[in-house]
Amino acid sequence: MTVSLRQILFVKSTRVPAHKKAATRKKRPTLLNMINSLRHRFLRLFNSLSRRLHRISRDVSRLAGQVNDVSAQEKQLAVKVAQTTQSLNGLSGQVSALATRTEPFATQISSLQAEVASLTAPSRAVRTLLQGRVGTTVSIESNAGSISGTLTAVGDDFAQIQEPTGDIVLIPLANVNSVT
User: Fold this and answer.
1) Which of 5, 42, 136, 173 could form a disulfide with 123 if both were Cys (CB 3.0 to 4.6 A apart)?
2) Which residues lie across from 142 on neighbouring strands?
């Protein structure tokens, strides 16, 4: 069914009851008014879409610039990663070479530690013996001679004796030959 323009513009009037005739009737818009109204709406819509399109294109340009910046930074980081990897490979080779060179020293260090332990073992035994006798009268034979008195303290590597004269004598535990 086709509707003519005339049918759209001129709608059949219906009979209005007498009591409603006093009501004001709205004036129907003319075709020219309708066209102008539509034209005005289309212009507003076009302007709105134009502004949105301008904003979107500006945002796209800004994002393209940011993508370019990120790409440049990525390339710089890739170069730095390659340089760092190369440096690490070089350092790894140097560490291996140093480990090979220091291996003989490890054997020497172990033998020296064993020798030190064997030399200090008697001092530890003497210290343990003297710690149990603190506050008692002892006589210690050392490389320097015999010393008698009250054992007042025992340190990591010395014994402290107070002689009957009041003098305090420090004796290195490594020099102790006997204790009575």
Assistant:
1) 173
2) 145, 176
Question: Residues 128, 134, 136, 137: is their CA dihedral positive or negative?
Answer: positive
Mean pLDDT of 114-141: 85
User: Half-sphere exposure of 11 toward its Cβ, with a 13 Å CA cutoff?
Assistant: 6
In the block, which residue shows the tokens 């004001």?
24
Residues in the chain, overall count: 180
Residue 56 in this model has a pLDDT that exceeds 90: yes
Show the 3-state SS of the chain: CCCCHHHHHCCCCCCCCHHHCCCCCCCCCCHHHHHHHHHHHHHHHHHHHHHHHHHHHHHHHHHHHHHHHHHHHHHHHHHHHHHHHHHHHHHHHHHHHHHHHHHHHHHHHHHHHHHHHHHHHHHHHHHHHHHCCCCCEEEEEECCEEEEEEEEEECCCEEEEECCCCCEEEEEHHHEEEEC
Q: Report pLDDT for 108.
A: 85
